[in-house]
Specification:
disordered C terminus; globular; 22 helices; mainly alpha; 506 residues
Length: 506
């Protein structure tokens, strides 16, 4: 069965809503867990979650190839689902048996529910990869359901019933089960009868590629370890985390390109890459400028002391803005590569984008870490603000040439041109929101988080209204997006018509 057509705008908007839901519900869930768990329990929760990442490596390998094969019409649904279940049973039992060595201080019931959560992560992960390849919008519905259900169950078990760590694990486990069930029901029209052992052979034989990519990505987390070792303290890490949290807000717009990868795996079309770029920068441009304008009050919401690193948050916002083009270019390169369909020889994979792109990232991370060691050894900043600002500047300097080169590589390979004209228009329209934001920006910063947010909300709402209003007037694509969204809501949710009569927009 051939997968249905991927609707870029539809999937992108759903992904954006799912990202916002993840941020909101994730914050509530963290608040519930942090308030009810003892510090040592919260530490064990984080520790076990970090251990899970190693047990999930086989699932990551399976999912990497599942999305690529399913998007191209291969019937591997039963194969992936069954493999995910069996791998989940093995991982869960392995964690349970090794738990005395890994987490020897926890009560037995916590080990049981943690093992059960690990199993459901495999089950939900395998179904999610099938959904991403078959109907990417289903994965977004699943993501929203997961965040909402997790928070609701945590409120009942952790906050009201005071089940503490056991309740936290059960909440996540229940959410994974619900997510897997929802996504399975929404892709039940796929071909589930055939079993494809050849696919499993390819997954095992080519597992080195996703493992190599995972290894390269893990190098990025070494910057915290290096800076901690160079400075001999961890206070700056907390301020860096706050600055990164605010400075990374433009990355919310990246979710608008969620449908690009499976779309390109079906058919490589230049206009899809250009459309995703316009959608991402339509949103990331005003967010970047907004973060620069109100970085200090945004940091104050997290904690008043963090306002000292507002220059670093502004630099990181620019960095996140630039990384948008890198993300889209990398996605287009990965989506246009079809070496697994042409040649099974080992050397052909070494020459493919699947290997070259992680290798390029390896060079970038190596340069980035070397710059950290060099700059911090030479300049030796004497304040937390100077430390975090220097760190942010180094990150930007390391990412800029990489992003430009990947964009050039993608443009040359796919023969597309980044929409600089539209990106410039978004920047000009964003500048019109500067005066109203500065006029309504709070001059005094409240200590209470809720009060601080309420004081800042008028600036955010006014700036967004000015930008979106101008965008609606001067951008035809945005007007089409708005009216398409209204038609979609009316057809799918407001009018009860047979499914065959519904015509979602693209």
């Amino acid at each position: 069965m051939k997968p249905p057509r991927v609707r870029l705008r539809y999937v992108g908007l759903l992904s954006l809503v799912a990202s916002i839901a993840a941020v909101g519900c994730g914050a509530l869930f963290s608040l519930i867990v942090s308030r009810r768990l003892q510090p040592w329990e919260l530490g064990e929760w984080r520790y076990i979650s970090s251990i899970f990442t190693y047990f999930l490596i086989p699932l990551n390998v399976l999912n990497f190839w599942t999305v690529r094969y399913v998007s191209r019409g291969f019937q591997v649904y039963s194969t992936v689902a069954l493999t995910g279940l069996l791998a989940g049973v093995f991982a869960s039992l392995s964690f349970h048996m090794l738990s005395p060595l890994l987490v020897d201080r926890l009560e037995y019931m916590v080990i049981v529910v943690a093992s059960l959560q690990l199993f459901t992560m495999f089950m939900a992960g395998s179904i999610n990869s099938l959904a991403l390849g078959f109907k990417p919008q289903v994965a977004q519905y699943g993501a929203m359901s997961f965040e909402i259900i997790k928070t609701a169950v945590a409120y009942l078990l952790v906050l009201l019933l005071r089940m503490r760590l056991v309740g936290a694990f059960i909440s996540v486990t229940f959410a994974f089960v619900a997510k897997a069930l929802i996504e399975f029901l929404m892709i039940r029209d796929a071909e589930w009868k055939s079993f494809n052992p050849g696919f499993l052979k390819d997954v095992v034989r080519l597992s080195w590629l996703p493992l190599y990519s995972t290894f390269v990505s893990s190098l990025a987390s070494l910057d915290v370890i290096i800076v901690t070792a160079l400075l001999g303290e961890t206070v700056s890490i907390g301020f860096w985390t706050a600055a990164f949290t605010i400075g990374n807000l433009p990355s919310i717009a990246w979710s608008l390109s969620a449908g690009l990868y499976p779309r390109l795996l079906r058919e490589v079309r230049v206009k899809d890459v250009e459309l995703s770029t316009r959608l991402v920068y339509m949103l990331s441009t005003p967010i970047m400028l907004g973060v620069i304008l109100i970085a200090e009050p945004l940091l104050n919401i997290l904690r008043p002391e963090y306002t000292a690193v507002w220059p670093a948050a502004s630099i990181l916002a620019v960095n996140s803005y630039i990384l948008g083009i890198s993300l889209i270019s990398s996605t287009s390169l990965m989506g246009s590569e079809d070496v697994e369909l042409k040649n099974k020889a080992f050397k052909s994979y070494l020459k493919s984008v699947l290997f070259k792109l992680p290798s390029l990232k390896l060079v970038k991370f190596t340069v980035y870490l070397a710059m950290l060691v060099t700059f911090f050894s030479v300049f030796k900043p004497d304040t937390v603000s100077a430390t975090v600002t220097l760190w942010a500047a180094i990150r930007l300097l390391a990412n800029l040439p990489f992003s430009l080169y990947v964009a050039y590589w993608s443009a040359k390979r796919l023969k597309w041109s980044p929409p600089f004209k539209q990106m410039g228009k978004y920047l000009v329209l964003s500048l019109f929101m500067v005066p109203p934001v500065l006029l309504t920006k709070p001059h005094s910063l409240s200590i209470q988080a809720v009060n601080a947010f309420l004081e800042l909300a008028p600036s955010i709402l006014l700036g967004a209204s000015v930008y979106l209003g101008l965008l609606y007037v001067f951008d035809r694509e945005f007007r089409s997006l708005v009216w398409g969204l209204l038609r979609f809501l009316r057809t799918y949710y407001l009018v009860y018509t047979p499914r065959d009569d519904r015509k979602p927009y693209d």
